[in-house]
UniProtKB/TrEMBL annotation:
Belongs to the 4-oxalocrotonate tautomerase family. The keyword Ribosomal protein does not apply. Residues 2-62 form the 4-oxalocrotonate tautomerase-like domain. Pfam families: Tautomerase (PF01361). Keywords: Isomerase. GO terms for molecular function: isomerase activity. This is Tautomerase. The keyword Hydrolase does not apply. The active site is at residue 2. Its EC number is 5.3.2.-.
Length: 69
């Protein structure tokens, strides 16, 4: 059973519900096409990560982006 985990930053209401549904469908199709796996047994999980919850260079991404703008 294929198990795909997508980690994506949640910012400004993106990704939307529709975008996540498109990701799930698209990844499932790709796994079926490339690996010849059954779509019905393909699991896709999307983890949305808030920019306060990861960092770069000792600062949260929220702070890094504030400095850049």
């Amino acid at each position: 059973m294929p198990f795909v985990n997508i980690k994506i930053t949640k910012e400004n209401e993106i990704p939307t519900k529709e975008q996540k549904e498109a990701l799930i469908q698209g990844v499932t199709e790709l796994i079926a096409k490339i690996l010849n796996k059954n779509k019905a047994s393909t699991v896709v999980i999307i983890d949305e990560i808030n920019t306060d919850n990861y960092g770069l260079g000792g600062e949260s991404i929220t702070q890094v982006r504030k400095k850049r703008s």
